[in-house]
């Protein structure tokens, strides 16, 4: 990685790579720090001021934080790649800083542009303080409402101007300010919604698109998540059962999981354990909500899922500490990167108004390990959170000729392959790739970084050779805390 930093420092001018001389945005040297402070990356940074309320151009302004990682090839003329992060609430700069290696092949000939979407990162972030996931029980809904009201007291009614529809206009302003005629897009999770709306609004400005962990335009985020999570968890358990090593180590895994789910409804277990971050003593209660958070976080990708059988087995035998510690650590990592106020602005404006959950639906959802807690929490938050503008056609089917690569994981707990297939139905120049055994987001999986670079270079989905994925296998399960089988 240090070799990449050195090369980027040598390419310090805005004229590097594809950045046009007509740029009207002044950039300065900066460094992007890994979310865990493991490393940093040289870039060029700047701020573009835009109206917070688009209907009042002369009113209050906010600064959009932009970082540009110039192409290593000074003579490259390839379209720049704009990253659109997930969440909603993650900043593009954090997405890139934590996964820069996955973009290294692309960065040889493509500038990489990181616009922190308004409300995230350094672009007027809307950060709220909420209880930890494992404490968000039904009996704490009043505290959830209090936290939401407190956040609104800090930011006021202006939170309504942080929706996807406004963000895509920001994105095009940044494109024009940097002097780019056409751009590539990489959208991850919620970022695929942003990419799809940009494709709809500004098709002439898009060269090619990668959608990773795909939401389809007609999707309402929320009601399907518990069922999708249940499906992914079952696939993980099935994969263990079909693996001789895993099944041999945990022959009763399915029964142990079922027993934990039965116990941690009514049961609450006090735990004293070393804080996974500081090592200091930490007292928590292991409850249904902590178990649910553990199952959710550990289902997100095959690397985390590889720990799940071992942790569940230990928990089933009474050793809850390792499962609790892993859950706390993952929850903090995710929470540190998400702007919950911006997430509220998006979900409360674009999704919750479309909720149509019948009594029968609630009964079905209640049978999943996540249950109806998230739906009830969103109802409480959105009852007080102001709604912002959402384009009338935001959820209409997208029909487009723009070359598009769609990436899905077979065991994705939030955007399963069926969602990508629905998004692909209106894309006439597309390639849908599903990775066996993988979860949410394929950015750094196997040969996917190479495939993404090849796709952006040629923008020809039919010509993409994906045979390298035939050899791909998801991360093997840990057979104990020392690791997987040799």
Fold and architecture overview:
By secondary structure, this protein is α/β, with parallel strands linked by helices. The chain folds into three domains: 2-126 and 161-220 and 394-471, Alpha/Beta hydrolase fold, catalytic domain (Rossmann fold); 127-132 and 139-160 and 338-393, no CATH class; 225-329, no CATH class. It has 17 helices and eleven strands. It has helices at residues 2-10, 92-98, 141-155, 164-177, 190-201, 225-242, 244-249, 253-263, 288-297, 302-305, 308-316, 321-337, 340-350, 359-366, 373-382, 417-424, 448-458, and strands spanning 28-33, 40-51, 61-69, 81-84, 112-115, 183-188, 206-212, 269-274, 281-286, 404-409, 430-435. The strands form two sheets. Strands 1-2-3-5-4-6-7-10-11 form a nine-stranded mixed beta sheet, sandwiched between helices. Strands 8-9 form a two-stranded antiparallel sheet. α4 crosses α5, α8 crosses α11 (308-316) and α9 packs across α12 (321-337).
Task: Give a brief rundown of this model.
By secondary structure, the chain is α/β, with parallel strands linked by helices.
Derived structural class? alpha/beta
Instruction: Give me the number of helical elements.
Output: 17
- What distance separates the N and C termini? 28 Å
The overall number of domains is 3
Beta content: 5-15%
Largest sheet: 9 strands, mixed
Uncertain stretches of 5 or more adjacent residues: 1-21
How much is the radius of gyration in Å? 22 Å
Number of DSSP-assigned strands: 11
Strand arrangement across the biggest beta sheet: 1-2-3-5-4-6-7-10-11
The CATH class designation of the largest domain is Alpha Beta
Percent of residues in helices: 25-40%
Corresponding CATH architecture of the largest domain: 3-Layer(aba) Sandwich
CATH homologous superfamily name of the largest domain? Alpha/Beta hydrolase fold, catalytic domain
Which sequence of SSEs, written as H and E, runs from N to C? HEEEEHEHHEHEHHHEEHHHHHHHEHEH
CATH topology (level 3) name of the largest domain: Rossmann fold
